[in-house]
Amino acid sequence: MASSVDYAKVPIKEKPLHTPSLEEVAKVLSRGLRKTFETVNVTAEDSPDLTKAPFDLTTPGLTGNVKLVELGGPPYLTPTVQRDKVYDLAALLRHLARDPALLAGAGAGPWPYIGVNCEGIINLHIRDGEAHQGTRIVSVSPVGAAKGSSSYLQQKLPNNETRTALLGNYLLSDGQPGKVIKVIAKKRVGPSNFITAIRETLKEHYGEKAVGLGGAFLLRAGKVKHHVMPDFSSSPLCTDADVDAWLHYFEMSAPIMHLGTLVTGDLGLDLRVQHFHGYSSHGDGGHYHYDTTPEEVEYEGYFAIASSVVRVDPPSETHAIGRD
What is the pTM of this model? Predict the structure, then answer.
């Protein structure tokens, strides 16, 4: 059994983010997203009950003391995997003194649980010390299948499995209902994906003031390109081309719920600027890249503005490989 990282023994830093009002961000996105989508409607309003299908979150909302958490990083996966980087997320929330808490986003799944590397779509609610697990993992199926002839398998983690590994980008909040930024975008006419378009619009407007969002978006219509990581590579992955050759890519169909974070600046914390993973009731899920049906695509997103970034166990030696 791989033992989990001791949070008392790894660096944890927190830095504030710029926090404009929901209404201001809604206006900025309303204008800016029109470069990328034909139909855009952005509002500041109460989110629906996100515990209901097709969202299936473990809490009804995204708000209450909102922060971004970045855990580990791609240098723990490439060029070669560091198997000691196993993280218990329930223990992390205890360490951060957060209860009740929602932790939701994109990361590697707990390979010790299924014995192979996998994608993690983290959806964990802690209340009164108890874990309510909605996290899904997606792995290449069958294990060891060659790229091009493989499929994928989505599984839900049990409540007693709260580990993850290597890297993750999460929204941390109290999971309360409340006002968020709602983004409806249909028919893509620009080159950027949904999340990149949001991030670049905010970056253009706020410049050096780093803004961070965490939350969920639903692919309501259309298809998307996702990747699923196979088991760890036996040869070092030294370039983005190596990573690309290693990953398994699939076209997946709506509806797919995605969770993750985006941030418009690095704050000197070696951050991954955007990262979203998806899951669905029909088994499609993985790491979101972009939609493949721009004419048909419909996105519906709900985002909370984070007050700070909590950087947990950053790699001491870093690189830019594998961050797409």
Answer: 0.98
